[in-house]
Amino acid sequence: MELSAQLGNEIITRLSSYVETSINLMDSRGVIIASTDHTRVGRLHGGAVNVCETREPQIIHKTDLHKFPNAKTGVNLPVYHRKELAGVVGMTGDPASIMQTAKMTLASVEIVLEQIYLERESFDLERLWLNWLRKVLLSSMENLEDLKKEAEYTLQIDVEKTWQVIISRTLETDFVKYELKNHNIDYLLVLPFENYTIAVLEPSSLHYTIPIGLQKGETAFGNPEFSLKGIIDSYNQAREALEIFPASPSPVYSKHIPAERLLYNINENTYKNVTSLYSKKLFEMDQIYISTLQIFLQENMKINSTSSVLHIHRNTLNYRLDRIQKQVSLNPREFRDAIIYKTILVCANA
């Protein structure tokens, strides 16, 4: 990695608050690309040119200034990154007084250069993963073989395994990574994707237990599925679960809501044709009746358990159900009518 103007300015910004002496950074041709003295940027530094040619430090005294155009007294040292010359760091002042500071600055420049390199490498790798993930989730089935090869040769992963997808609107990517690593759960990737954090993990390493930290609201789990198609299917299941229960205070598991998923995927025209009149009448009622109906259906139409969850007397519950029946003309206690109510509520939430 060579020093560039952008890199040089970033390094100067990081170091200038710690070093009082003037600092220059030159590229591998000897051109000043960043400096605490902005008037010197863009000039060819004679001392740095000599460093680039000889790969040796260049100390410049007052008596040497005529030999090195655009140079001042000071110390110029070669900057190496991964055994390659990246540029030159120069410090202005009496060479004997600033040599120690110059060497410390050189070490700092090389450390910062490596840090920036690793940051960019990590960013580039994440961008590579994100690009591959986007192609997977938005691909047609005909492209899967090409994406498998890209995973194998570019990302060096074997996708012929069982995967499970988690998506969340509330969990940050770094937190999800921490939780998975902390519980020794193997994962393929954890990335920001669209409006979610998405994690693709190996369910076999879950040991039948989801970490408490991941059991948050607005988070959904797809089913374990195989290979690339499995990642797509598990993602779609998790996304669909969040669409059905968008504000759930606890995680939603696709495997626990097969009926809701079935109802959610009813043909839109059929849904409207069957439910529009009932739906209009139901949502004209106060929220307390709608909430009561939701809990009643969630509790499998059982009076006692519904009363317990709502903390109301069973007579109060029966009164509310009677009011709903009278308003909507469907009896929530009858299975055939309850299916229609359930369909309305599932699709309304989504």
UniProtKB/TrEMBL annotation:
It holds the Pfam family Diacid_rec. InterPro entries: CdaR-like_regulators, Diacid_rec, PucR_C-HTH_dom, PucR_C-HTH_sf. Residues 290-339 form the PucR C-terminal helix-turn-helix domain. Signal peptide: none annotated. It comes from the Bacteria. Residues 3-126 form the Putative sugar diacid recognition domain. This is Transcriptional regulator, CdaR family.
